[in-house]
From TrEMBL, chain A:
CDD domains to which the protein is assigned, alphabetical: KH-II_Jag, R3H_jag
Organism: Actinacidiphila bryophytorum
Protein name: SpoIIIJ-associated protein
SMART domains according to UniProt: R3H (SM00393)
Domain R3H: from-to ranges: 108-172
PROSITE patterns with a match to the protein in the record: R3H (PS51061)
Cited Pfam families: R3H (PF01424)
Top-level taxon of the source organism: Bacteria
Automatic annotation (TrEMBL), chain B:
Pfam families in alphabetical order: KH_KhpA-B
Gene Ontology CC terms: cytoplasm
HAMAP family: KhpA (MF_00088)
Name of this protein: RNA-binding protein KhpA
Entry keywords, A to Z: Cytoplasm, RNA-binding
Similarity-based family: Belongs to the KhpA RNA-binding protein family.
UniProt-annotated location(s): Cytoplasm
InterPro entries in the record: KH_dom-like_a/b, KH_sf_prok-type, KhpA
Length: 172, 79
């Protein structure tokens, strides 16, 4: 009896999480859509749930160039908008959001570049038998690199303090 | 457009959206976007270490408001 209850509780727990993340995406989409309308920018909003996070992307139809001003240099504007969007979600749900925002494929491209960097660093560590230290990165960037190194069959760790924290790829 | 965009961004993150008012003022030394919020929401629009205020300024800058100041004003504040 108690076993059955536990199972039910955890099942409904995970679907409740999914519902909550979908709701986060919808609140975020409303907030961003409002901004696009006011600023007269064209863009479609795509919502998804990736792992434990809601993920929202603004995709340009034809004139992606217009949208890139919402990305900014090094994604500076994108980070600011993500921050504000998370706050808008928090206002509605009362819970802190870890929502990921992407605009015009900026993060997707960045992720591909970092994955390649991780694979190259892993190859170098294998070849030289020496640890390979990478440049300081944000938590998001390090996560992508760690995943790429793991996919190449090596281990990696992070060292140093933010914002100077960096990935070190360990030789096998 | 900038006033409207900033008003939308602020309204979405405060507890008292009806008390949000944004005005563009043109001063001798340039333009200022003045944001008025409920006193209880002032901390919210400033954020930890001014993080939220900085995010608002960054987005306004990207929308064409580069060089325009964004001031946060408590509604109780007498000018």
């Amino acid at each position: 009896m108690s076993d059955v209850n536990t199972t039910t509780a955890s099942d409904s727990g995970s679907s409740a999480t999914l519902t909550r993340l979908e709701q986060e995406g919808e609140i975020a989409a409303d907030y961003l859509e409002g901004l696009l309308d006011i600023a007269d920018l064209d863009g479609d909003i795509d919502m998804d749930v990736e792992g434990e996070r809601a993920s929202v992307s603004i995709i340009g139809d034809t004139s992606t160039r217009e949208l890139t001003k919402l990305v900014g240099r090094d994604g500076e504007v994108l980070e600011a908008l993500q921050e504000l969007t998370r706050l808008a979600v928090h206002r509605e749900t009362g819970e802190r959001s870890r929502l990921m925002l992407d605009i015009a494929g900026f993060r997707a491209r960045k992720r591909a570049e970092l994955a390649q960097l991780g694979a190259e660093a892993a190859a170098e560590a294998k070849e030289t038998g020496q640890p390979v230290k990478l440049d300081p990165m944000t938590p998001f960037e390090r996560k992508v690199v760690h995943d790429a190194v793991a996919a190449a069959g090596l281990r990696s760790e992070s060292e140093g303090e933010e914002p100077q924290r960096r990935v070190v790829v360990l030789p096998a | 457009m900038l006033e409207e965009a900033l008003e939308h961004l602020v309204k979405g993150i405060v507890d008292n959206p009806d008390d949000v008012q944004v005005d563009m003022r043109t001063l001798r030394r340039g333009s200022v976007l003045e944001v008025r919020v409920h006193p209880d929401d002032l901390g919210k629009v400033i954020g930890r270490n001014g993080r939220t205020a900085r995010a608002l300024r960054t987005v306004v800058g990207a929308l064409g408001g580069r060089g325009i100041r964004v001031d946060l004003v408590d509604v109780d504040q007498v000018r």
